[in-house]
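Worked Example 4.2. Consider the chain below.
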Amino acid sequence: MKRFLLAAGLAAAALSGGAQADAEFLARPDVQRYIDEQVATGQFNRPELEAVFANVEIKPNIIKILDKPSTSRPWYEFRPTFYNERLIKGGLAFWEQNQATLERAERTYGVPPEMVVAILGIETNYGRNTGSFRLADALSTIAFNYPRRAEYFRGELTEFLKLSKEEGIDPLALKGSYAGAMGLPQFMPSSFRKWAVDFSGDGHRNIWSNVDDAIGSVAYYFQLHGWRHGDDVVIPAAIQPGVNVDQLVADKFNLHYTVGQLKTMGVLPQAQVADSVQAVLVPLETGPGVTQYWLGLNNFYTITRYNKSTLYAKVAQELADELRLRYMTSRAQAQPPAPAADPAP
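Applying the procedure from the previous section yields the following structure tokens:
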């Protein structure tokens, strides 16, 4: 990722042709109020903020995307998108290329390589699809042209401007998703400022093109959100007749019950697990009209802190497990055979 001194980047922005083209946006009262608020914090000055907003290009297509009704897919349709040979083979290659960094991240944060690799694969296909929108455009579009999410995205816009200044990056140079997610792990700006790490030791947190920083940032995020090294993510479960499944999954993103309590309600784990372990019931439609059940444990809950979706958490677990199986199998096959024992005299 090309780095600039922020002042130089902002000065260049002020002189570019986009400043004239976007003068109306800069002059909007709500944009000027926002600039006033940020200047009052003492963290920015007016010329540097006006230089950014004079070059912002509002993207109406982002609003169209946000206005599309969301449709939740069943598990059997969702799973193939993120559990497939393309991501598995890409993940094995990524693991091989970054083995030392992944092992260092496991030693440092207690998060296994396969989980970090799976997350980066699901998010951006190992950095191949990190987003093509200028982040200043995307965040400003939603912050000022989409009232339903304006408050949240103005906060993220502020975090983005702060991180640009902290890292010495031209805010008009960074790209990401239409919703402002950034880099290989697709962190939002607030997540970047809280959890991105300089894992390469070069003095910057660069999750766009520095793979070491991306790996370390995901592992650090998981550590701080409760990942327990060596623990299971999910185990299969069976449901006895009469169980009120809807009640048990109404709050599916929190661990309200222990395995022992769930047993008394008719949820029976199909693998060994202590009654004291906290768990959440996870029903997934594995085929049209066919539902299977799992118990999501603490590490499952941690994955849902990264993306608030039980489908996401389950496919991340499955992709990680497959990556580890194939990686360890390939390494075992690559080991030279043990020398034959000398024949007995």
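The longest strand covers residues 278-287. The beta strands are 133-134, 175-176, 234-239, 257-258, 267-269, 278-287, 290-296. Compare this with Example 4.1 before moving on.
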